[in-house]
Amino acid sequence: MLTEVLQGSDSGGIVIIRDTSSYSGRDLLKYCINCALKREEDVHVLGFEVPEQELRSELDSNNKHLFHFHNAYSDPLGWRKQSSFTVEQFSAENITRLVRETKHAKASVLVIDSLSWIERHHNPVAICQQLHKLKKGGAIRTICCLLHMDLHQQGIVESICHLANTVITVTAVNNALYAEAKTTHRKKSGKVMQEEEFFTVMENLSLSIEKRPSQSGHAQVHSDAKVDPASNLTFNLRLSEVEREAKEKVALPFVFSQEKKSALLKKGQGSGRIIYEPDANDDFDEEDPDDDLDI
Amino acid sequence: MIICIVFLLTQDLQSCTSFHTVPPPGPCVRSEMFPELNSILSSSPENFTEGEFILLSDRQADASFLIHHYLTFYLRARCRVCFLGLVQSFSHYSVVSQRLGVNLTQAKEKGQLVFLEALKASPGVLLGDESSDKTAALDYLRSPCPELRGLYEFVWNSLSRAGGEDAAESWGPPVLIIDDLSVLLSLGVSAGAILDFTHYCQATICSQLQGSMIALVRCDDEEYDEDEESSNYLLKALSHQCSLSLRVEGLSTGYCRDIHGQVEIWWRGRGIKNQRKIFQYKVHDKGASFFAPGTSRAVL
């Protein structure tokens, strides 16, 4: 489902890629940009976090003229007085105007890298309002944003993702080259589809989806067939019928059976009398020392 | 005077109990002080990656030995270094660098090193003395000024001039070292302002000037809640931006005399280049040795 959603077969909306510091979602964002370029759509990038050459590298060379990078990386706050796009300019009107400046008539895609940067300077409510206006505006067909989940409170992340048609959460998988993507896609009909997939973004920005891998750390090896331990041995551990009967007949030492009970109740045949000859040094007293006990 | 020297000597890489005076500076010693670390990171003063943002962090340990390493490393590599010393005085780094074979005073005189001694300049700013060029860098102490724009201007002015007045001395790529960022949080600067500052530093020094940037963030274990003004938040946010992260921690089993802690080195690349490795280390008189966990000489 990841491929279909990013290749944009559905008609637009807001796509949010959520990542954490352990695995960057920027590769997936680049894949999204590449797909849009292949569809010959105008791509406008509000780049706050990485410089232009890092995003532009490896993109489809045929349609590079459709890639418009609005540089908000070098001077986003106007400190150097050479800013191209500042964070203050983030509003639906400004962005719509920027997008309309390009002459291409086909639908446009807006890519925001990243929403987390903007959230540091704008109220989350304001961001949601601007995104909503852009979605309804008509100048932009698809908005694809990157959001760093671990930098915001959960409430803010959820409220921004509530606007989105598609939310892709990427997480790293222990010691693996691929990552896990959990996609939640809300169709126009209202149906919500969810899927978990493992993917890698290759050097040429192609997406490779893996099945659930066998060397996953959470593999549950459940043996259905019971293994017979007495098989494949050099000695014999099995019993024949005669041996089995004899084994069952053996009386266990500490089991109190009927025979033992009757044996104990019978008096012994005068075995084991004790004869004591007191020595000269012995102080033999015939009296019973417990005589005075009143039991 | 003698008391000062004794005090400074105790702030050595390893706590020093002998009170001998520092020997006079001899010819620059070219021996490798952190050979294992250089080989792990595949870098040397003659050959290192440009445009890197290296994030150093520690939790219940002291990563300042890495700051001393990078300071001497880049000075040896003949780079122009801007050092923001927000927590220690110049003489502290000077004494330690002497042991590692680099003369900071000489570097400063030659113009190779620009050192911001924030501790020395702070009382003047706080008490409201006349503002000079230097104290604009410490604007963050004057409330309500939450921006680190002044500090950024200072860094830009120090590193943007190529070679300084003396055209004969051509230095290598510019390097910014910050020791450390967490103290700014304690001084009332918001995490957002610090992140804006590091963003600008990275955009100009790393991307534009192809230089490198090293920053230290010190974390506390108590701040485990989701506070947006804590060092943990700063660390997470900077981890997104950095290209190399070295996390220093004490051993989970407690204090050990022969193993001072462990370092997690995280190369943040794409695909196969994204690697994390853990090494244990021991800091000694003239450097630190790094080894794979369990292979300390004391154990084997």
TrEMBL record, chain A:
Family assignment from sequence similarity: Belongs to the ELP5 family.
GO cellular component terms, semicolon-separated: cytosol; elongator holoenzyme complex; nucleus
Pathway info: tRNA modification; 5-methoxycarbonylmethyl-2-thiouridine-tRNA biosynthesis
InterPro entries associated with the record: Elp5, P-loop_NTPase
Pfam families: Elong_Iki1
Region (Disordered), start-end ranges: 266-295
Official protein name in the record: Elongator complex protein 5
Main subcellular localisation: cytoplasm
The keyword Nucleus appears for this protein: yes
UniProt-listed GO biological process terms: tRNA wobble uridine modification
Coiled-coil intervals: none
Alphabetical UniProt keywords: Cytoplasm, Nucleus, tRNA processing
Organism from which the protein derives: Astyanax mexicanus (Blind cave fish)
A single MF term (Gene Ontology): tRNA binding
Subcellular localization(s) per the UniProt record: Cytoplasm; Nucleus
Signal peptide start and end residues: none
Segments of skewed composition (Acidic residues): 279-295
TrEMBL record, chain B:
Database matches in InterPro entries: ELP6, P-loop_NTPase
Record keyword Manganese present: no
Subcellular location: Cytoplasm; Nucleus
GO BP term, example: tRNA wobble uridine modification
Protein keywords: Cytoplasm, Nucleus, Signal, tRNA processing
A Pfam family per the record: ELP6
Any GO CC annotation of this UniProt entry: nucleus
Pathway membership: tRNA modification; 5-methoxycarbonylmethyl-2-thiouridine-tRNA biosynthesis
The keyword Ribosomal protein appears for this protein: no
First and last residue of the signal peptide: 1-18
UniProt feature coiled coil, ranges: none
Family: Belongs to the ELP6 family.
PANTHER family: ELONGATOR COMPLEX PROTEIN 6 (PTHR16184:SF6)
Protein's name in the database: Elongator complex protein 6
Organism name: Astyanax mexicanus
